[in-house]
Amino acid sequence: MSVIYVLIPIAVLFVMIGLAIFFWAVKSKQFDDLDKQGFSILFDDEPKAPANTELTDQSDNKTSNTDHEPR
Q1: What is the mean pLDDT of the segment spanning 32-47?
Q2: What is the spatial distance between Cα 29 and Cα 34, in angstroms, rounded to a whole number?
Q3: Would the pLDDT of 64 be above 90?
Q4: 3-state secondary structure the chain
Q5: What is the mean pLDDT of residues 42-68?
Q6: What's the number of CA atoms in the CB half-sphere (13 Å) around residue 5?
Q7: Which of 19, 32, 39, 55 has its CA 20 to 30 A from that of 69?
Q8: Closest residue by Cα to residue 19 from 58, 11, 52
Q9: For residues 45 and 39, what is the distance between their CA atoms, to the nearest angstrom?
Q10: CA 9 to CA 20: how far, in whole Å?
Q11: CB 53 within 8 A of CB 47
């Protein structure tokens, strides 16, 4: 019976902590748009540009054939 005197305040403390976390989440607008994250995985944000290897910058390829020859 004496265990109840310990468990009831602990349970009340857990409920108060849970309510505090819930009200913090509501105040910080965690529940404003519940559908956005669910739909965000279905659609791309920006269309991807096709990769065009012919238009690459030739200045990036500064290695010459002499760099790879054995000495």
Answers
A1: 74
A2: 10
A3: no
A4: CCCHHHHHHHHHHHHHHHHHHHHHHHHCCCCCCCCHHHHHCCCCCCCCCCCCHHHCCHHHCCCCHHHHCCC
A5: 62
A6: 2
A7: 55
A8: 11
A9: 11
A10: 16
A11: no
CA–CA separation, 10 and 5 (whole Å): 9
Q: Provide the token pair at 47.
A: 């269309």
Question: Which tokens hold the place of 20?
Answer: 């505090």
Query: Residue 59 is which amino acid?
Result: S
Whole-structure pTM value? 0.47
Q: 12: which residues sit within 8 A by CB, 6+ positions away? A: none
How far is the C-alpha of 12 from the C-alpha of 36, rounded, in Å? 35
